[in-house]
Design goal:
- By secondary structure, this protein is mainly beta.
- Helix content is 7%, strand content 45%.
- Strands 1, 2, 3, 4, 5, 8, 9, 10, 12, 13, 15, 16 and 17 form a 13-stranded antiparallel sheet that branches.
- A hairpin with a 6-residue loop joins strand 2 and strand 3.
- Residues 1-21 form the signal peptide.
- InterPro entries: DUF5777.
């Protein structure tokens, strides 16, 4: 290569790096939001699918694939005049839940990335009191997705979350075995912190995982209508993600059937996550345009 060509190559490499740094990425890992952002007026579509039947039912039911499923469809798009600001809408079949909100990336450092996110959720089904709590509720969720780059390929995430209303809000929680009975309703919302870990093996292939702790107010409570000594459980999701041109495919095993903030972080949705042995298959498909 001649010396006169060296500046041209350097400019091309810098331009390529700038374009890569400014590329859009759908701000979703499994169920928790990431601190990524859609740039300019770019938009992305996410399709989620959660099988309800546990894998442990074995081959007679194709490891849960014959069972009932909840599908969801979401759209996120950038708002060009405000760099880092995204708007999103999402609808899932779980109680016909509809969410809409905004996410703003507030920090994009070399080793730490952070965003703030607020959404409103509405369960469109008729409000009814079930043994596990109320359905047909509405409320808001506020999250601060924070990502720490341990290395370029290992990312640890924290997602502090506050949900204003959950399934058991305004109801009397059932006391866990050995605990004194509850006599006052469960007031207020729920604060929780979701955890995540991503490990990139190659540029396209990575391991992804999330953990949804049981909120402290549910630690001494049991899901209503369940008398076998079961208490509310911690939730998890783990699997693998493959990224190709503008697509990201993620397949996971999870004991939490939901996908929205109020479903996976409240700890009491549908009686809460199942026991760890009763995990099911789920997948996400994200496409950036």
């Amino acid at each position: 290569m001649t010396r006169k060509h060296a500046p041209l190559l350097a400019c091309a490499l810098l331009a390529g790096g700038a374009l890569h740094a400014e590329s859009s990425e759908y701000p979703l890992v499994i169920n928790l939001p990431s601190a990524e952002r859609m740039q300019y007026w770019d938009f992305g579509v996410a399709f989620t699918h959660r099988f309800i039947q546990p894998v442990k039912d074995h081959g007679k039911d194709v490891y849960g694939l014959d069972g009932y499923t909840y599908a969801g469809l979401g759209l996120t798009f950038g708002i060009k005049p405000v760099p880092g600001l995204n708007a999103f809408i999402y609808r899932t079949a779980d109680n016909k839940t509809f969410t809409v909100g905004l996410q703003q990336q507030v920090l994009n450092g070399e080793r730490v990335r952070m965003a703030v996110r607020g959404e409103r959720f509405d369960e469109v089904v008729k409000q009814t009191l079930t043994p596990l709590g109320k359905v047909g509720i509405s409320g808001a969720a506020f999250q601060v997705p924070t990502e720490i780059f341990i290395t370029d390929d290992i990312i640890f995430s924290l997602v502090p979350t506050y949900i204003t209303r959950t399934t058991t809000t305004d109801t009397v929680l059932i006391a866990a075995p050995g605990e004194p009975p509850k006599t006052t309703p469960n007031r207020g919302g729920v604060f929780n912190v979701g955890l995540g870990l991503r490990i990139g093996f190659t540029e396209k292939f990575s391991f992804v995982s999330e953990y949804y702790p049981r909120p402290s107010k549910l630690a001494k409570a049991a899901p209503g209508g369940i008398t076998d000594g079961t208490t509310y459980q911690n939730g998890f999701a783990a699997g693998f993600s493959y990224k190709t041109f503008k697509h990201r495919f993620t397949v996971v095993g999870t004991n939490a059937s939901g996908t929205t903030a109020n479903q996976v972080m409240s700890g009491d949705y549908g009686g809460g996550p199942r026991s760890s042995s009763n995990w099911s298959i789920g997948f996400n498909v994200a496409r950036v345009f």
